[in-house]
Write a structure and sequence with these properties.
The protein is an all-beta fold. It has no helices and 6 strands. It is globular, with a radius of gyration of 13 Å. It starts with 7 loop residues before the first strand and ends with a strand.
Amino acid sequence: DQLADRWLLTQFSNSTGPGFFNCVALSTSGDPTGTYFRWAFPTGTFPDYPKYGIWPGAYMISTREVNAGLIGAYAIDR
């Protein structure tokens, strides 16, 4: 996020147990080697094809929830 001078890192989990997660980390500063805020959004099914967008007040996330025929929508305060 150039305007906020932050780094956004993401990874979905491929869990062998019940449930899956879309994991997100957002840097606390412009230093990519520094500290991060972290979230793990439970998705229920595999969160395929995650897409990320930036709005003035939030980071927006969408996923295709495999085998559930659903779309996941998540937001993180900017």
